[in-house]
Amino acid sequence: MQTVLRRYSGKGAKELFDLLEKHSAEVEEWMGDVKGLVTYTLVHSGEGGFSVTVCQNRTGIDESVQRAKEWIAKNAGSIGAAAPEVTEGEVIAHLNKS
């Protein structure tokens, strides 16, 4: 499995996450179609936030990054948020207790 963490901070980050929170159901639907998606989590941290996406493979991660860019460009482009800090890697342990 692969993971990508996208952290948004600085200019426009708070406004972006305020908007994402208002449209969380739409965002979940938009990201839910990513092939091989295992989990998607969006976290509002006050002055910005981050997302964590886990997919079965690199193809899913690449698709999730592209979908995030598309949603932000379409719905939040006028906010002018800085590009996220992106960290990617291979999952070495995964626990899901629902």
Characterization of this structure:
The protein is an alpha+beta fold and 98 residues long. The chain has one domain: Alpha-Beta Plaits (2-Layer Sandwich), CATH 3.30.70.100. The chain has 3 helices and 4 strands. It has helices at residues 13-22, 24-32, 58-76, and strands at 2-8, 37-44, 49-55, 85-90. The protein has a 4-stranded antiparallel sheet with strand order 2-3-1-4, covered by helices on one side. Strand 2 and strand 3 form a beta hairpin. 22% of the residues are buried. The model has no long low-confidence stretch (mean pLDDT 94).
Task: List the keywords.
globular; four-stranded antiparallel beta sheet; alpha+beta; Alpha-Beta Plaits; 98 residues
In angstroms, what is the radius of gyration? 13 Å
Number of strands: 4
The helix/strand order is EHHEEHE
The name CATH uses for the topology is: Alpha-Beta Plaits
- Structural class computed from helices and strand pairing: alpha+beta
Dominant shape:
globular
Number of helices: 3
Distance between the termini: 19 Å
Question: Overall pLDDT, averaged?
Answer: 94
The share of residues in extended strands comes to 25-35%
CATH class: Alpha Beta
Tell me roughly what share of residues is in helical segments: 25-40%
CATH architecture: 2-Layer Sandwich
